[in-house]
Design brief:
Elements: H1 2-8, H2 10-14, E1 17-24, E2 29-35, E3 39-46, E4 51-56, E5 61-68, E6 73-80, E7 84-91, E8 94-100, H3 104-128, H4 135-152, H5 162-176, H6 183-199, H7 203-206, H8 210-221, H9 228-246, H10 251-266, H11 270-281, H12 289-300, E9 331-337, H13 342-353, H14 355-360, E10 363-369, H15 374-381, E11 387-390, H16 398-402, E12 410-415, E13 420-423, H17 427-433
Parallel strand pairs: 1-7, 9-10, 10-11
Antiparallel strand pairs: 1-4, 2-3, 2-5, 5-6, 7-8, 9-12, 12-13
Length: 435
């Protein structure tokens, strides 16, 4: 009986809901991303005859994304654990129009986004005008324009959806409305964040706002410190309080620890990253797979460890070697970059201008690019004398996870045995370190 049902109605037995997209002007791959506290690649499929379908097998209420061009273009979808159908039209490699066919919640969200976009435009334009005698007159003009906007775009029905209502309230409270430098307001903000994480259901994870909230929480925790050391201490105290309220060994507590490690790595707050890496490594409970994977990766990337090898692709330039480990050199500088990253271009220009110095120090440069466009990759790689390669996968590149890339550029200096000797060192500091 079940086999017969599976043949006739396969998605009834094997999925909670489906996302059906008709896509015009685009023929590549589409990725579905969900959230479980952190962003997660759910599945990637190729567009077939202008259509693609994803079947989500678990109960899910929150946000998901369809991504195109490895994340360069995306469509936001709010899920109520019900089927969603949409049309996506591309023009000149960019999304021109999205139409939701059977999803009132996503039509309502489009209306909210339109309102917020126009609201921001009104604030910007009115604040730039100079024809007001005082602040009161400016505020009156602002109120008039906002009232007009409210009559043009009626949001009354949009907030009938609990998911949307919760999402925008959380975003406004913890991301858009920060406490400034008022000590009482700061303490209330920190307490409210702790209460939110300790007492709210699964939408904490599926809204995809955890990292943004925790980034603000970490930054605000350090306010008022007189030194970096004091700031680190204040941050640790705040995060420890949060983990105490949530439960450090709970699934959410472990997701928070993982997010804090990632945030600290992104902003170069190594003291915090190392502290919670060591703290998480010492837990005796069952460790959730995303945190365990991160701990294993960080362990493999410690100073003195052998750098994990990567096989070069067909796009590699300036070498006939098959992998990073096969490149013979006294030192190797691994530079993970993107042509669209201004800081990367600055580092590349510095290396190019001082390339003879690098050679005199027996340093072989190996660039790993996150570019998705081969022409953009070549516009840089063809004009430098060192090794460069790319998987053309942007943030889906294998380098991201394998080498703990939180931002670009990311650098590693290796010795002749491929052991890590320095991490994220600035080019200007590299020569002094090798004297």
């Amino acid at each position: 009986m079940y086999k017969l049902l599976a043949l006739i109605f396969p998605y009834i037995l094997y999925s909670q809901f489906t996302i059906d997209a008709e896509i015009f002007g685009y023929e590549g791959e589409v990725s579905l991303r969900t959230y479980d506290g952190l962003e997660k690649l759910y599945e990637t499929k190729k567009v077939d005859k202008n259509k693609v379908q994803f079947a989500v097998k678990e109960f899910y209420e929150g946000r998901v994304y369809l991504e195109f061009y490895s994340g360069k273009e995306s469509v936001e979808i709010f899920s109520e654990n019900e089927d969603v159908s949409l049309k996506v039209n591309f023009k000149d490699n960019e999304i021109e129009k999205v139409t939701y066919l059977n999803s009132p919640i996503n039509n309502a969200n489009e209306k909210i986004k339109e309102y917020l976009f126009k609201q921001d435009s009104i604030y910007r334009v009115v604040n730039e005008l100079d024809n007001f005698s005082d602040a009161k007159q400016r505020q009156e003009k602002l109120n008039q324009e906002l009232l007009k906007l409210s009559s043009d775009i009626d949001l009354t029905s949009s907030f009938n959806f609990p998911i949307l209502n919760d999402y925008y309230l959380v975003q406004d409270k913890f991301i858009n409305q920060l406490p400034g430098d008022n000590i009482i307001a700061i303490e209330k903000y920190l307490q409210d964040v702790r209460s939110y994480f300790a007492n709210t259901g699964a939408r904490v994870e599926t809204f995809g706002l955890m990292r943004k909230i925790l980034t603000n929480y970490l930054k605000i925790s350090g306010f008022g410190a007189n030194s970096r050391e004091q700031a680190m201490q204040k941050m640790k105290q705040s995060v420890d309080l949060l983990l105490e309220d949530v439960g450090k060994e709970t699934e959410r507590g472990q997701l928070i620890q993982l997010a804090i490690i990632n945030i600290a790595n992104t902003y170069g707050v190594n003291e915090i990253a190392d502290y919670y890496y060591n703290d998480a490594s010492s837990m005796k409970c069952d460790v959730i797979s995303p945190l365990k994977e991160k701990l294993d990766i960080l362990e493999s990337l410690k100073i003195g460890k052998v750098f994990p090898d990567t096989q070069f692709t067909k796009h590699v330039i300036n070498t006939n070697k098959k992998s990073i480990h096969k490149v013979d050199s006294e030192n190797k500088l691994i530079l993970i970059w993107s042509s669209e990253c201004p800081h990367c271009r600055k580092e590349i220009d510095y290396i190019k201008a001082n390339y003879d110095k690098f050679k005199s120090k027996n340093i072989q440069i190996i660039g790993l690019s996150l570019d998705t466009d081969i022409d953009k990759f070549k516009s840089v790689a063809d004009n430098v004398p060192w090794i460069n390669d790319t998987e053309l996968k942007y943030w889906d590149s294998s380098y991201i996870t394998k080498y703990n890339v939180q931002s670009t550029p990311t650098t590693y200096l290796l010795d002749k045995d491929n052991k890590i000797s320095m991490i994220n060192v600035k080019m200007t500091e590299l020569f002094n370190a090798l004297k």
